[in-house]
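Practice problem. Given the sequence and the SMILES for pyridoxal-5'-phosphate, write out the predicted structure.
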Amino acid sequence: MTLTQATPSAQATPTLAQQVRSDFPILHQEVNGKPLVYLDNAATSQKPIAVLDAIHHYYERDNANVHRGIHTLSARATEAYEAVRDKTAQFVNAASRNEIVFTRNATEAINLVAYAWGMGSLQPGDEIILTVMEHHSNLVPWQFVAQRTGAVLKHVQLNAEEGFDFEHFTSLLSEKTKLVSVVHVSNTLGCINPVTEICAAAHQVGAKVLIDGCQSTPHLPIDVQAIDCDWFVASGHKMCGPTGAGFLYGKQAILEAMNPFLGGGEMIQDVFLDHSTYAGLPHKFEAGTPAIAEVIALGAAIDYLTAIGMDKIHAYEEELTAYLFQQLATIPNLRIYGPKPQANGSGRAALAAFTYEGLHANDLATLLDQSGVAIRSGHHCTQPLHNQLDLSSTARASLYFYNTFEEIDVFVSALKETIEFFSELL
Ligand SMILES: *Cc1c(COP(=O)(O)O)cnc(C)c1O
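Answer key:
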């Protein structure tokens, strides 16, 4: 493929995106007669060849059920599957591989904690602190828990910059607080929440903390021990892995004290007709045949990201963020939500949820699709946040390390044309 120069500066060395784009076959296609510009990475990321190959290789050579067979294929499948637990533990710096539980996605991981910990531990009047910016995945399971246990939900508001209001958070904390469950990076506002400080403050009142790392794990180096969270969840499909595999991290002592979530094969030690004893960690929480191929491919995604380096990915995405915000600033009356980035692009995620007065987000997304540009429109599973901002929907462009400066140019000029087109109709 041909490499083109980055727009902001005539660099001799290719950008990260220019180095990696050939690893992503899906990016090299035309949509509606135009080169695809994929800017919906907060919904799901694209997958490199290494991940596609891992799935193919597994089914072609190693397919067998895990943990059950003595035969060679089962041993290979088990070894490959369990190796990903070590990789995942390393990737987020967990203290032990026993602290990593594979789930279908982040939603299932949050539900696991809600059912296996929340339903059994919370009493009427206990308080759960969430924020108004949470994804529905980190709201609805706690609504279930509150309805069944009598626990009370509290929500941290936005500060003046449309980020996490730490002062409001600390005002909600008390000895009644049993859980704080907070998104690390908002999929709509793009803010990076101060999770280490949140954990420290919550632990002072004896509360546990769950961090929703869906939008941080793909983009930032993660160290769960430094954050000191009690649980941390992520989805593989947003970090170059396939759908169907995510994970829960939990501190070992806390996972040990939790009841199982789903019952069935794999999670038991001995089964009698009227009761069972359970397997140790982490298998206690992995009932039934797991998503073997998907977890193995998630391992390939982790290898791929690690080989590039999460620091490098993060640094490049900051450059993209700075350029994206500079270019969007050339559109008068475009309203972007969430905190502004620093001049060097730091301080927020490489995404922008926005509105343009009088235009519906769906219409913007439909016209941009005509130019080959894929953005998201709607409430992005943060309907309470949209209500809070008095919006029914926003349009959102979300970037990843394989996006180029030129793609930002294509997006912004298509957005300008779209706005002009509609303005003439008004
Ligand atoms: C995508 C996302 C989720 C849910 O992830 P699933 O893969 O759909 O389970 C939760 N929280 C945030 C912030 C997300 O971006």
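Check your answer against the key. Confidence is low (pLDDT under 50) at residues 1-6.
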